[in-house]
Amino acid sequence: METEVDKLAKVIWDYMLMHQEPAPSDCILVLGSKDLAPAERACDLFLQGYAPIIIFSGYGKAFYPKSEAEVYRNIALKRGIPIEKIFIEDKSRNTGENILFSKELILKSNIPYRKIILVQKPYMERRVYATFKKQWPEPEIIMTSPKISYEDYVKDNPYYTKEKIINTMVGDLQRIKEYSKLGFQIEQKIPERVWQAYEKLVAMGYNKRLIS
């Protein structure tokens, strides 16, 4: 049964999705995390012919014995993607570094970057997009994520509890508002309905990922 918390969380979830459709691009860049679904989404896009190169970014050894980038690469290899089409960046520890270090890899490796498909978890789409466009405005970005509903994502999620997912969404929405003022992201308009959902969730105790 849908609760009041779910209704409010879905408002933020829907706002976080950019609803951009994939198009032929120069490369696919995947930001790593504990969740393996973005790697599978990126592999689907590669195998459907949307880009000739796939890049996995992320250190993240707190979750896996190898870096997130290496874990993602192994998924791609099992999916039949040739190793020479895969690049990894395995030093980054946050979204900003994902973008900065991946940019360095792309430039150093002479990978075309006029248009990039960027892949992350669904509820992080907008924050990742805003951060990328601030740090590297030149490429055209298509933001995408695994195709899954809020209800299906939070139900029996093998990586995160529903409480953690909602806390993360609330924290990311606050960052979308505040980080543009600090120069970390481009400015994104937040509809009043979305901000009201944020305030209600904070009042209900979903404040574990807020910044001071």
From TrEMBL:
It comes from the Bacteria. InterPro entries: Cell_Envelope_Assoc, DUF218, Rossmann-like_a/b/a_fold. This is DUF218 domain-containing protein. It comes from Candidatus Nomurabacteria bacterium RIFCSPLOWO2_01_FULL_40_15. Residues 26-140 form the DUF218 domain. GO terms for cellular component: plasma membrane. Gene3D superfamilies: HUPs.
